[in-house]
Amino acid sequence: MRRFAFWICTTILSMAFLLTIISCGGPKITEEPSAHDLFVKGKQLYEKGKYISAQERFKAVVYNYPGAAVVDTAQYFLALSYYGNKEYTLAGIEFNRLTLNYPSSPYFEQSIFMKAVSFFESTPKHYALDQSDLVTAIKQFEDFIVDFPESEVIPDAQEYLKKARTRLARKYYQNGITYSRIGAYRAAKMYFQQVIDDFTDTKYGPLAVYQKAEMDYHIKAYKEARTGFENFALVFSDHELVKKAGERAAKSAFLNCKSLFEQGKLDSASECFEEFQNAFPADKHVGKAQKYFRKALEQASQGSSKENVGT
Fold it and tell me: What is the domain class of 123-212 according to CATH?
């Protein structure tokens, strides 16, 4: 009887000990977080500015739960997390991924806009550095404005587009200035023409028109220079360079007439000097123009007399 009781006690203690080991030291089964839980945690981290930690949660949703209802939202916030961390190139890639993989997402339109913003922000801020991404951004902003004219971010897109175009215009304009300073006027003229053709609506447009006329002046294309300065004054009548443009137009006109005279084109020169006096009656070169005009008439008359004598 005592042996039986001892056996019972020993068995009970052994079972109790085994249960203790199982309950304390055995493996615990943990439930895997859902896509929604991961997203909520990621968004909390994102709102606290902990972008790298947030990225990990959003990636887990995107890569592990491709069919979840929240996956496109996670994709969007993944891109925003890169953007918030100033990783603009990666942000652009993720925004683009949303537009490709989730075209029916409510974040589709915003992602197209933010993709363009990411290209803009990834471009070096100094105009003299590589602006390749800026060209891409300009095209994307232009397309966005056309494709989503009713979007609430249209004003923002237009502002970004203006900034991007102005920065690129400045790059080409400064290239022109650099070439003009070393006397490469024809090369400079090409850059100013590019600004005129593509960026007239920026503040560098009028400056390029003026500088192109200056380049014509320096290569002694005085007729074209006069036209350029006069067009500048006509189109940009409120610009601070209008007065100077008028003076340069007059000097270009005078030098064009003088050039004709020196080339022996006396009839053309006399007509040119007469037109100059009518067009610029108050210019400081009028006195010289009158003298050249009389010389041209005299020499033309003498030439005619010699021809008559010869016949």
Answer: mainly alpha
